[in-house]
Amino acid sequence: VESDLKVGVGAWLGSSGPTTDAITEQATKAEALGFHSFWLPESHFSSENSVPAPLLLLAVAAAQTKTLFLGTSSFLLPIRNPIQMAEEISVLDQLSSGRVILGVGRGYQRQLFSAYGTQANNKRQVFEEALRKMISAWAGEPIEVEGKETDENMNSSYLFPLPFQRPHPPIWVAAFGSKAVSQAGRLGFPYLASPVETLSMLEAKYARHREAQEKYNHGVAKSVPVMRTIFVSRKTDQLNSIREKLDAETRLRADSPVIAIRTSADASIEDWAIIGEPAEVADKIELYRERLGVTHLIATRTRLSHLTSSELEGSLELLAEIVN
Prior knowledge:
- By secondary structure, the chain is of the alpha/beta class.
- The chain has helices spanning 20-32, 54-64, 82-95, 110-116, 123-138, 178-187, 199-215, 236-252, 259-264, 269-272, 278-292, 309-323, and strands at 6-10, 37-40, 69-76, 100-105, 171-174, 191-192, 225-232, 273-276, 296-300.
- Helix 1 packs across helix 2 (54-64).
């Protein structure tokens, strides 16, 4: 695999959830193996594996690492105050000496929006406005004050600290639906592809993203990031077992709006996951580079929850040998 590909790993959230010890151990392991970045999702109210505050957990990882970039795969903007988000991201970027990659998203669970008192039907508009305010604050512009009670004599407020990376950390827009993909392109940000869509689906969505970027004169995206379920092993029986379990899980959860995307096209595991022996995995990674122009590959492990920590670490070690 060519050396200019940057490969990151997603945290493995075991039965004990995202504990401090687990995050520390996994982040330091990822850095020691030479991976580029370490990623956390955001999820609420779902299980013991929920990650409601990914920035706090990434601060733990930042304190224990030196070179590892720290990413959110989908930090949900519509449920938060944009200035508070801008401040907290700035603090994490300063704490890590400029190692934050900000993957941002909108969310899709209606119960999440209800719990946070926000409207699901205008989430794209709220997302875009929040991002605009954050970028303005990071640029050192006066923080916008809204409402009739604004005092004209009040001094302007400015964000402090500003991010370590100027003007701000890299922003990638996690998107699933076609409208969200087009929005990412229109705003001029890279599109972070989900781990559940097939390669052919991703080709169509990256084409849509490029089309929107060109239409709004943003040029070609410098980063083309993709998340994939990845497992590497030299044991044929283990690989067959993983394929069978993933296939069974996919069919079991076919009523999920996300999972149904795969099954509706009769997609096989090979269409959306990278699983195999080292040479096979290396070939598949090259295929993604050829067909999508991938610059950043993020190995997620959330769909491999039935495996032990030692099995997952063995896979990571083999992946590191392939890509480093």
